[in-house]
Design a protein that fits this description.
Elements: H1 9-23, H2 29-45, H3 51-66, E1 70-74, H4 76-93, E2 96-99, H5 106-118, E3 129-130, E4 140-141, E5 151-155, H6 159-167, E6 171-175, H7 182-186, E7 189-191, H8 195-208, H9 211-218, H10 223-239
Parallel strand pairs: 1-2, 1-5, 5-6, 6-7
Antiparallel strand pairs: 3-4
The structure holds adenosine-5'-triphosphate.
The site of adenosine-5'-triphosphate has 17 residues, from α2 and α7.
């Protein structure tokens, strides 16, 4: 039992949740390592949603709302940490939700699907086919899901797959705390924020944006602006770390 007044309460809770989901086979062991990298960057960013991340979140909402066929790609970590938030974002944005795994087994896809459904997510189903320009299991996705989507939200994606989606002409929105990752640098838009802060913020914005603001946001700064802003934030935090 983690005491609620522990200074690292949220972080410890997330670790406990991921560890228990790893024991159940929902989260991969590699997913635990990826979470650690995310935590390190969250420390550097100050464990809060920065102003530029907030703008990226509103822009992400505008992109999802204006998409013809938006899909949210969900992996084990995302399902473990944010299944209910995915359900809320799905109903605010009318996006499809597809389970798409780097370390893919049909058993894990099944377990993650059940977890998402128990939180109220409508999960796309069907037979995954090798439709992405990647080798082996990483090429697999649903023809009626990610393959046909014009915009894909990929929380916690790996760089190769992000690149593959962009090369297929899709608008890719990444959520990634590491502004230096290949994912962050290749996505159309990167939200440099922690997943469980970013998703509710994007959902909230979906309910607030009117068409005029949506159009303005779609013309908002390009991805490199958001990455530079995150790096500036980190630099500032480091400079003042021992003040
Ligand atoms: P790339 O292949 O894009 O260079 P990578 O090898 O770092 O990136 P992964 O190991 O798949 O990619 O890690 C996933 C990314 O997700 C990491 O960059 C990490 O910072 C980020 N991340 C992990 N947990 C969270 C979280 N809870 N919220 C936001 N980002 C996270």
């Amino acid at each position: 039992m983690i005491p609620a007044d522990h200074p690292r309460y949220r972080s410890l809770l997330a670790r406990e949740r991921l560890a228990s989901c790893a024991r159940e086979g929902v989260v991969s062991l590699e997913g635990l390592a990826a979470h650690g990298r995310g935590e390190a960057f969250d420390y550097l960013i100050g464990e809060r949603t920065t102003e530029s991340a907030l703008l990226a979140e509103r822009t992400a909402a505008a992109m999802l709302l204006s998409a013809r066929s938006p899909v949210i790609s969900v992996n084990g970590n995302t399902a473990a940490l944010a299944a209910a938030s995915i359900a809320e974002l799905q109903s605010a944005s009318r996006a499809g939700v597809e389970v798409n795994l780097f370390h893919r087994t049909e058993e894990r896809v099944e377990k993650i699907t059940r977890l998402l459904e128990s939180a109220g997510v409508e999960v796309l189903s069907g037979r995954a086919e090798p439709l992405l320009p990647l080798s082996h299991a990483r090429a697999l996705c649903l023809r009626e899901g990610i393959f046909s989507a014009d915009s894909v939200l990929v929380p916690l994606e790996d760089g190769d797959r992000c690149q593959a989606l962009v090369s297929m002409g899709k608008r890719v929105i990444a959520i990634d705390l590491n502004p230096l990752s290949r994912t962050a640098r290749t996505a159309t838009l990167t939200v440099v924020d922690e997943l469980t802060r970013a998703l509710p913020s994007i959902t909230g914005a979906c309910g607030e944006i009117d068409p005029e603001e949506g159009e303005r946001l779609m013309r908002s700064p390009d991805n490199s602006y958001f990455l530079r802003a995150a790096l500036d934030e980190i630099r500032g935090n480091l400079e003042h770390a021992l003040d």
